[in-house]
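REQUEST ID: PR-0412
SUBMITTED BY: lab tech R.K.
PRIORITY: routine
TASK: structure prediction, single protein chain
INPUT:
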Amino acid sequence: MILGLIPARGGSKGVPGKNIKEIYGKPLIEWTIEKALMSKRLDKVLVSTDSDEIASISRRCGAEVLKRPDYLATDIASTQDVMVHALMSYPSDILVLLQPTSPCRSEGLIDECIDDFVRNGYDSLATGFICDYIEYGKNTLPRQQIDGFFYDDGNVYVIKPELILTGDRYGKKIGHKVISRWENAEIDDEFDFWLLEKILEKQMTTGLNLQFFKQKE
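STATUS: complete
OUTPUT:
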C-alpha cells in the first residue's frame, strides 16, 4: 500500500489555526487533500491530527482521519513520531508525506515523485530547489558561479516505511526532485499566507507556465 500522510496539528504559534484558515476560498488543508485524492498512485489519504475541527473538515473533503494521542499534540512532537504512529496503524510499502503548509502543487506532482522514487530505487525522495545563498561577507564569487546545494521545500516526501520505523528518515540513497518555484512556497507566517493566496489565485484563474518557473538542477 502507498500511504499519503498529511500531518495537521491543531495548535500553531506562527499563524493560529493555520491548517484550517481560509486561503483563496478554502481551508488551507483542503488544497493538499484535494491534490492527494487526485493521485492515481496513493491508495489511502490519511490526515493525522489532534483537532476535532481539522478532523471534521478532512472527512468532509474525502480523507480518512487518524486521531493523534496527546503526546503527539505538543509543540515538541516530531514529524518522525507522527509518521511512526501512522505506520503502526496503517502498515505500508511506501509513505508519502504531504505537508498542508505547502498548498501549491501541480497536478501529477505527487505521482511523479512516487514514480521517480520507485524507478530509481531511492530510500527517500524530497522535492525542493537549488539554494545558492551564502552568508553576507563570505562570498567571493558571482552568483552564477556558485554551485549551491539542494534544499527540501516541504512539499512532497517519499520514504521507505522500514526506515521511519527504525528512526531513519533519509536512508543512504536519497532522491532530489527540483520543482517549479511557485510549488516551493510554504506557509510559516502571515506574510506567507498573503503570498500563497496570490499564487493560488494566479494558478486558479489564469494558470501558471510551469516551464517558465522551472529552476536549474
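NOTES: The longest strand covers residues 149-159.
REVIEWED BY: pending
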